[in-house]
Amino acid sequence: MVRRWWYKVGSWLTESFTQPRMKRSKLSTIAETSYAGVQNVYYKQGQKCSAEELRFTCHKCKERFSDYVDYIMHDHEHRYEALLGFKPHFKPADLPRIVIEKEPKMTGMKSSSDQPQRGFQKATYSYEIIKDQQETSNTTRSSITSDAICHVYSTDLNKDLIKSIVVCSHRNDNWQSDMEDSFAVINGYGQRENTCFIGIFDGFHGKSAANTASQELPIWFLDNLSKNDPSYTMTEEEKAFVSSLDTVFTEDYKEAEDNFSSHKRRKYKDAHMEGINVAYAKAFWRTDRTLKLGRQESSKSRWSGCTAVTCLLDGLVSDKTQSSDTSTQTHKRRLGMMHIANVGDLKAVLCQYGKSHCLTRDHSTASSHEMRRVVESGGSVSANEDCGLIEGVSKVTRGLGFHGDPKLKTSVIPVPRTISIPIHETSQFLILASSGLWEVFSECEVVDMVQDLLASMFSSPSLKRKNQTVSSNQNSFHAKGIYREAASHVSQELVKAAISVGSQQNITVCLVLLPGCDKA
């Protein structure tokens, strides 16, 4: 019961006590607005990487760790101990001694704090976490990823833009009986050589909506793209799918769709950029409409829904965007574009110049703007959680599906937030992940972890030896293997760390290594 109790406040504690060493900086934005078919897939289950030589040192007490999750847990213990008033070198050696010294310290905090009850609660939760961590064996932690599934995707078609794409997922069976996350990775998207589509879909009240969206949203997106840009082409199978649902989209519906995709949306001078943003809006709208058919729903009264984050990686950039003086502008040369769209609380985070940039915006009751929209639309928000739940059910305010509850559906809308960002040689990696990761870690923490792990991987003796053998040909099979190995290990460590610090959700992490990944 104690473990279940403090896990429920894991997200709040992590956000409250985290002081990341990296700060967000402003990223130049080109544009912004408020087929599960997997190609060229190389699949491994429970994949292990040669990371036995990695070492991580605690910057507070200088203790060294060979297991990264143990290092993360140790760092969290320092934070919780600090809240109880203990310094790293003066902490009682055992739990009974902490119990003896806990009460006077907490009493002093309660009397001196401006918000005594809140501070007292945080200190109490910290004690329970330390207690639970000391009772949890390292053996249990090391076996966490035994059921993790790692998918490594071929990057032959995207070799100049993408070093590696890896998706790692875990059901988190201590808390979840079903895997409700779904994802899609499509290389050569739209029959274009250097284009890739990635989507993560986080299910709610079942997996039907997430599975269906992962299959159909990429097709609807491609259908709209191909109408504005002939370089995107559809297969006969994709065309047949679109034709099969013609009767669902009446003229009245199409008119409403046009109004939806243009309502309160910023216009862009760049026709290509404008087309992508409109295509995204219509794709989310149509996917939500087809989910209303309930084709795979098992319950007539409680249909599923999902949140989503998607990314279109486009390496086909016009030469006129390049500087005429390439020798002095190499570090600024644009290699491609990434177009992000999201609904709900999933995140896409880019690391560039060693800094984290969150490319998504949360659509949840934590947002005052979203709360105002929900109330104005006639929705109600209960107070049974910190930020409240819409109709007492959901904290997300935008998503796909949710048609089983008409009252909830009036508040949960399928309008995506889209943003377009250039990819440079200084772009290091992109992370897309379901809420299971973000409920326990901030984006700065995740970027910190990935940077630490990549730096350790690329500097480890085994990978240095491999790098020496392929330095003359960075596009060789062995060079690709190095990036695959690094990305696989890092994504698995992220999943393992999230479970270790108390995530209660399914966890799906997609790590995309970009051109600057080995220059961290």
CATH architecture of the largest domain: 4-Layer Sandwich
Strand content: 15-25%
Based on Cα principal axes, name the global outline: globular
CATH homologous superfamily classification of the largest domain: PPM-type phosphatase domain
Can you give a write-up of this model?
- The protein is of the alpha+beta class.
- It has two domains: 10-46 and 148-363 and 398-519, 4-Layer Sandwich (Phosphatase 2c, domain 1); 49-142, no CATH class.
- It has 16 helices and 18 strands.
- Strands 1, 7, 8, 9, 10, 15 and 16 form a seven-stranded antiparallel beta sheet that branches.
- A hairpin with a 6-residue loop joins strand 13 (381-382) and strand 14.
- The longest helix is centred in the C-terminal third of the chain and has 24 residues, at 477-500.
- Residues 1-25, 33-53, 137-142, 318-331 and 470-475 have low confidence and may be disordered.
Summarize the model shown.
The chain has 16 helices and 18 strands. It is of the alpha+beta class. It has 2 domains: 375 residues, Phosphatase 2c, domain 1 (4-Layer Sandwich); 94 residues, no CATH class.
Features:
520 residues, alpha+beta, Phosphatase 2c, domain 1, seven-stranded antiparallel β-sheet, disordered N terminus
Would you spell out the secondary-structure blueprint of this structure?
Elements: H1 2-7, H2 10-17, E1 31-33, E2 41-45, E3 56-57, E4 64-65, H3 68-83, H4 95-112, H5 116-135, H6 138-142, E5 149-153, E6 164-170, E7 181-187, E8 195-204, H7 208-228, H8 236-244, H9 251-262, H10 271-291, E9 305-314, E10 334-343, E11 347-352, E12 355-358, H11 368-376, E13 381-382, E14 389-390, E15 400-401, H12 406-409, E16 417-424, E17 427-433, H13 435-438, H14 443-459, H15 461-470, H16 477-500, E18 507-513
Antiparallel strand pairs: 1-16, 2-5, 3-4, 5-6, 6-18, 7-8, 8-9, 9-10, 9-15, 10-16, 11-12, 11-17, 13-14, 17-18
Helix pairs in contact: 3-5, 3-16, 4-5, 7-10, 9-10, 14-16
